[in-house]
Design goal:
88 residues, alpha+beta, five-stranded mixed beta sheet, 2 helices, 5 strands, globular
Protein backbone atom coordinates (compact mmCIF):
# COMPACT_ATOMS: atom_id res chain seq x y z
CA UNK A 1 0.00 0.00 0.00
CA UNK A 2 1.37 3.41 -1.02
CA UNK A 3 0.15 6.96 -0.49
CA UNK A 4 0.82 9.92 -2.77
CA UNK A 5 0.46 13.60 -1.95
CA UNK A 6 -0.36 15.33 -5.24
CA UNK A 7 -0.76 19.06 -5.88
CA UNK A 8 -2.26 20.05 -9.23
CA UNK A 9 -1.90 23.59 -10.60
CA UNK A 10 -3.62 25.33 -13.51
CA UNK A 11 -7.28 25.69 -14.42
CA UNK A 12 -8.42 23.10 -11.89
CA UNK A 13 -10.94 24.95 -9.73
CA UNK A 14 -14.53 25.62 -10.73
CA UNK A 15 -14.34 23.17 -13.65
CA UNK A 16 -15.43 19.88 -12.04
CA UNK A 17 -11.87 18.68 -11.40
CA UNK A 18 -12.59 17.37 -7.88
CA UNK A 19 -15.76 15.58 -9.00
CA UNK A 20 -13.94 13.83 -11.85
CA UNK A 21 -11.00 13.02 -9.55
CA UNK A 22 -13.41 11.31 -7.16
CA UNK A 23 -14.90 9.32 -10.04
CA UNK A 24 -11.41 8.26 -11.18
CA UNK A 25 -10.59 7.19 -7.63
CA UNK A 26 -13.63 4.91 -7.60
CA UNK A 27 -12.66 3.50 -10.99
CA UNK A 28 -9.09 2.75 -9.87
CA UNK A 29 -10.03 1.60 -6.33
CA UNK A 30 -8.16 4.47 -4.66
CA UNK A 31 -8.97 5.87 -1.22
CA UNK A 32 -8.08 9.35 0.03
CA UNK A 33 -9.17 12.95 -0.31
CA UNK A 34 -9.32 15.80 -2.80
CA UNK A 35 -9.80 19.48 -1.97
CA UNK A 36 -9.29 23.01 -3.24
CA UNK A 37 -6.40 24.75 -1.48
CA UNK A 38 -5.55 28.34 -2.39
CA UNK A 39 -5.10 28.19 -6.17
CA UNK A 40 -4.47 24.48 -6.59
CA UNK A 41 -6.09 21.12 -5.90
CA UNK A 42 -4.56 18.85 -3.27
CA UNK A 43 -4.98 15.09 -3.40
CA UNK A 44 -4.03 12.38 -0.92
CA UNK A 45 -4.34 9.03 -2.68
CA UNK A 46 -3.76 5.55 -1.26
CA UNK A 47 -3.73 2.40 -3.34
CA UNK A 48 -1.79 -0.53 -4.73
CA UNK A 49 -1.14 -1.46 -8.35
CA UNK A 50 -3.53 1.11 -9.83
CA UNK A 51 -2.15 4.14 -7.94
CA UNK A 52 0.20 5.23 -10.73
CA UNK A 53 -2.57 4.79 -13.33
CA UNK A 54 -4.84 6.97 -11.19
CA UNK A 55 -2.11 9.62 -10.89
CA UNK A 56 -1.58 9.73 -14.65
CA UNK A 57 -5.33 9.94 -15.34
CA UNK A 58 -5.63 12.89 -12.94
CA UNK A 59 -2.65 14.68 -14.49
CA UNK A 60 -4.00 14.19 -18.02
CA UNK A 61 -6.97 16.23 -16.84
CA UNK A 62 -9.57 14.79 -14.56
CA UNK A 63 -12.29 16.93 -16.13
CA UNK A 64 -12.86 17.99 -19.74
CA UNK A 65 -12.79 21.70 -18.80
CA UNK A 66 -9.60 21.53 -16.72
CA UNK A 67 -6.12 22.50 -17.88
CA UNK A 68 -3.29 21.09 -15.79
CA UNK A 69 -0.26 23.38 -16.06
CA UNK A 70 1.96 21.64 -13.52
CA UNK A 71 1.87 19.27 -10.58
CA UNK A 72 3.95 17.85 -7.79
CA UNK A 73 3.72 14.32 -6.50
CA UNK A 74 5.55 12.73 -3.61
CA UNK A 75 5.21 9.42 -1.84
CA UNK A 76 4.49 9.88 1.85
CA UNK A 77 4.11 7.35 4.68
CA UNK A 78 1.03 5.20 4.02
CA UNK A 79 -2.23 6.80 5.14
CA UNK A 80 -5.40 4.84 5.77
CA UNK A 81 -8.72 6.08 4.39
CA UNK A 82 -12.08 4.31 4.30
CA UNK A 83 -13.05 5.77 0.93
CA UNK A 84 -12.28 8.66 -1.42
CA UNK A 85 -13.84 11.94 -0.28
CA UNK A 86 -14.11 15.50 -1.58
CA UNK A 87 -13.38 17.77 1.40
CA UNK A 88 -14.06 21.26 0.01
Amino acid sequence: MKTLHIKVFGKVQGVGFRYFTERLALQYHITGTVQNVDEHVEIYATGNETLSQFEQAVIRGASPMSQVESYTSEEIPPQQFNRFTTLK
